[in-house]
C-alpha cells in the first residue's frame, strides 16, 4: 500500500529528473560554497519528486493526474 498517489505523469517525471540533476550539478560547478549547497539541494528535491512521481505542491494546488 502506498502512502501517496502519483500526481504527475511520466513525461513530467522525466523532465523533473533531468532538470533537477542538471540544476544540482550546475549549482555545485558554478557557485561558491553556501549558495552551491542550497542550489544542489533544490535540484535534488526536484529530481526526487520526479523519481517518486509525487509533487506536494501540485497536490496542494489540486493539479495532476486524475
Please tell me about this protein's structure:
- This protein has 66 residues and is mostly helical.
- It has one domain.
- Helix content is 71%, strand content 0%.
- It contains three helices and no strands.
- The protein has helices at residues 10-30, 33-52, 56-61.
- α1 runs antiparallel to α2.
- The longest helix is centred in the N-terminal third of the chain and has 21 residues, at 10-30.
- The radius of gyration is 13 Å and the shape is elongated.
- It starts with 9 loop residues before the first helix and ends in a 5-residue tail after the last helix.
List the helices and strands and how they pair.
Elements: H1 10-30, H2 33-52, H3 56-61
Helix pairs in contact: 1-2
Features:
66 residues; single chain; 0% strand; mainly alpha; elongated
Distance linking N and C termini: 18 Å
Q: What helical percentage do the residues reach?
A: over 70%
Give the tally of structural domains.
Answer: 1
Which percent range describes the beta-strand content?
under 5%
DSSP, total strands: 0
Indicate the structural class. mainly alpha
Q: Indicate the radius of gyration in whole angstroms.
A: 13 Å
Written as H for each helix and E for each strand, in order along the chain, the element string is HHH
Contiguous runs where pLDDT drops below 50 for at least 5 residues: none
Shape by Cα distribution: elongated
Largest sheet: none
Number of helices: 3
Mean pLDDT: 90
Amino acid at each position: 500500500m502506498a502512502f501517496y498517489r502519483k500526481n504527475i505523469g511520466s513525461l513530467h517525471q522525466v523532465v523533473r529528473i533531468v532538470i533537477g540533476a542538471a540544476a544540482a550539478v550546475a549549482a555545485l560547478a558554478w557557485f561558491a560554497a553556501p549558495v552551491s549547497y542550497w542550489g544542489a539541494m533544490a535540484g535534488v528535491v526536484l529530481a526526487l519528486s520526479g523519481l517518486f512521481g509525487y509533487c506536494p505542491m501540485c497536490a496542494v494546488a489540486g493539479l495532476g493526474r486524475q
